[in-house]
Design brief:
Helix content: 40-55%
Largest sheet: 4 strands, mixed
Order of helices and strands: EHEEEH
Shape: elongated
Strand content: 15-25%
CATH topology of one domain: Double Stranded RNA Binding Domain
Strand order of the largest sheet: 1-2-3-4
Number of strands: 4
CATH superfamily of one domain: Ribosome hibernation promotion factor-like
CATH architecture of one domain: 2-Layer Sandwich
Structural class: alpha+beta
CATH class of one domain: Alpha Beta
Oligomer: single chain
Protein name: Ribosomal subunit interface protein
Number of helices: 2
Length: about 140
């Protein structure tokens, strides 16, 4: 998995970089490890301040753009503290990844249901175990 980390409005220190790596890329590694698509995944992580003149309220934001094979996930969170915004973002990303994985399973099940419906025969045309058709005389 390739990931890029971009900051806006402040400078990045090593401790914060490790925190982002543990929280955000850890979520993707944990939830996509069985999917065999982890190598093809790219993450673009951006963290920063929303404004320079506000000091109160939700001034820190974090966002992730994840390019998965056949899909694109985008998550965004804002909070009063940078680490809190990153925590909220990791929860949101986990939900988006679960939706992505369940969508593949549900498409497969939907296709199986359609195939089963197409293969169903009319009840009058079904055969009994003894080889006799329904509706035949005694």
């Amino acid at each position: 998995m390739k990931f890029t980390l971009k900051t806006t409005g402040f400078s990045l220190d090593e401790a914060l970089k490790r925190y982002v790596d543990a929280k955000l890329t850890g979520v993707f590694r944990k939830l996509l490890k069985k999917e065999h698509i982890l190598d093809a995944t790219t993450l673009d992580i951006e963290i920063g301040r929303t404004t320079h003149h506000h000091n109160k309220g939700k001034v820190w934001r974090a966002e992730v753009n994840a390019a998965l094979p056949g899909s694109f996930l985008r998550c965004e969170a804002a909070a009063e503290d940078l680490r809190q915004a990153i925590d909220l973002l990791s929860v949101e990303c986990a939900g988006e990844i679960k939706k992505y994985k369940e969508k593949k399973v549900s498409k497969m099940k939907r296709g199986a249901r359609m195939a089963k419906r197409d293969l169903k025969l009319d009840p009058a045309a079904r055969m009994r175990r003894g080889g006799r058709e329904r509706g035949e005389g005694a």
